[in-house]
Amino acid sequence: MRRRGVYVMLTLCGVLTTALIAFLVLFLTGGQGANASGAPTVRVELSHSQGEVLGNYGFTAWTNQMFMQFRGIPFAEPPTAELRFRPPVARSPWTGTLNALNFGQRCPVITNLDGQLSDAELEDCLNLSVYTKNLTASQPVMFYIYGGGYYNGSAEDHPPNYILEKDVVLVVPQYRVGALGWLSTYTEELPGNAPIADILMALEWVQLHINHFGGDPQKVTIFGQSAGAGVASSLLLSPQTGDSLFKRAIVQSGSIFASWAINKDPRAQSMRICVQLGCSRCDEEDQLVECLRNAKVLDVLRITTTESFSPIVGDLQGILPQQPSELVKSYRRQIPLLTGFTQHDGSFVLASYYDALAAKVSNVSSLTVRQFSQGIYDLNNDTSGLTGNTLNRLLFKREILNSHDHSAAVPSYFDLTSTIFMKSPVITLATRIHTLQPSTPVYLYSFEYEGKYTRFGYEFGNSHYPFNGGVHHSNDNIYLFATHTLEGQDMQMSKKMVEVWTSFAIDGIPSELSPLTSASGPYNQLNLEITKEEDLLETLTSAIDDPENGRLQREDMEF
Ligand SMILES: *[C@@H]1O[C@H](CO)[C@@H](O)[C@H](O)[C@H]1NC(C)=O
Ligand SMILES: *[C@@H]1O[C@H](CO)[C@@H](O)[C@H](O)[C@H]1NC(C)=O
Ligand SMILES: *[C@@H]1O[C@H](CO)[C@@H](O)[C@H](O)[C@H]1NC(C)=O
Ligand SMILES: *[C@@H]1O[C@H](CO)[C@@H](O)[C@H](O)[C@H]1NC(C)=O
Ligand SMILES: *[C@@H]1O[C@H](CO)[C@@H](O)[C@H](O)[C@H]1NC(C)=O
Ligand SMILES: *[C@@H]1O[C@H](CO)[C@@H](O)[C@H](O)[C@H]1NC(C)=O
Question: What's the CATH number of domain 37-220+255-325, 3.30.70.370, 3.40.50.880, 3.40.50.1820, 3.40.50.261?
């Protein structure tokens, strides 16, 4: 809630300042004017007679530069009715001026549904937002793919006021999330990976139209975080990604090599959901399709709150025709890559595992440390037990493993969850690509700054956990998108992050970072100062090796 409050504050400041400069703007360039209520607006004509869009103004966070914003430009037809689950269809041209003054509808999420809207309106979410300072320039384009566990996320959650301090154009497309995007039966009607196809279509839109917004279509950087990292790394490996769509990539916290990044049995999932919708004959393809396609948005969302969704291998569009571990073998792109994780990127998995366990076992501490960690390995489905055996040896002292001393094990739990779910998949992506294409730079980072704000417990609160969140998953984004009011060192950190990310987008070299020279390193620790460290596998033991790791345990609460 705090985040929304801050965002509203930013918007309000924008509106006030807007009034002050309205006069100035009116006389700047053609295409700019004012709407009926006197607020300044700007018109842009798209290519190929697609139509005209009307935008307005925002202001950067630190130097109050004015930028133009076009929020909610549709790039695809609403994926509703017979288009539901199907690859996106390009938006047909419109006549007159289309208002892009506010964000379009987010793709349906159970917690954010507007009950007044019809399903067709709710599903009309394939809009993108463009932020730019100069319509006639030719600036590098940063194309952000949001995270949200493949079931959440929106353009609105990513205010541009830090990134627009630099001379770049920011594009934030929306893509389908949850069942309405990811369900598949490997058939024409439910081909799979529709959300990745949404992103591909938005990238094509950028190629066609971004020059009208002052962006250079030859200089597009994709960046994605968490589930968005899964999508961004899929685009890197996919044979369906044309070579001109983007020239650099940033993959934050996760990759398509993670076990959570691929849905192994979407067909069974589709049938399960069909049955839960109360339909009959869910084992017959046409009945199944009819059921899923005609289901009310609210019903689909309501019965899928405990399902997880993600990309699939073998979709009919050929986006991921083989396992990522196979696809990477023929990787030939020359795309500079910046990838990494937060220092304690897995602590959110520890938290949700803890919640799930506490719901089943009345006293979590009655489990031994070994039993507790086994449950985490089980989430990863490694049937050989190799992961568990090796990580038990690496991360736990022998005497702790058979004890109930969970407090002492907290740093080990941090390293274990971070390694399995985030760090190892990122390191695999980075080192496989570096090894195959040594002449293309790969930069690896560990984000280690601990500031005032955290995303720990953002959704459900964090006061009930017997541990703290550390440098939590998504905390890096606090410094890239203007969701909080940052001061002092936090603002300095934000300036550093924006400098690194945008310098990479501008010339392919992230300011102050060192590229991999071998599969062992070096890597870069991102903090108020950036430091180069030689051995990247040291990141896997970063919590247990930390002399100050006592702060990860809660002082006021027994585990
Ligand atoms: C005029 O622009 C303001 C801000 O740009 C917007 O909030 C308002 O809805 C617009 N009014 C009309 C009539 O389009
Ligand atoms: C997507 O954006 C377009 C243009 O602003 C708008 O017409 C459309 O209604 C938006 N979709 C929703 C559901 O808001
Ligand atoms: C989705 O994200 C929004 C905005 O961050 C949040 O308000 C909402 O609670 C989230 N929904 C779920 C189901 O996590
Ligand atoms: C916008 O970009 C053009 C082309 O680079 C340049 O000539 C112009 O001065 C820029 N305008 C502003 C306000 O910076
Ligand atoms: C929970 O289990 C631990 C370890 O067996 C034990 O020390 C503790 O007293 C138990 N707590 C409760 C409330 O039963
Ligand atoms: C892990 O395996 C179990 C049992 O085979 C299965 O039900 C579950 O879906 C699997 N989870 C993942 C993430 O593959």
Answer: 3.40.50.1820
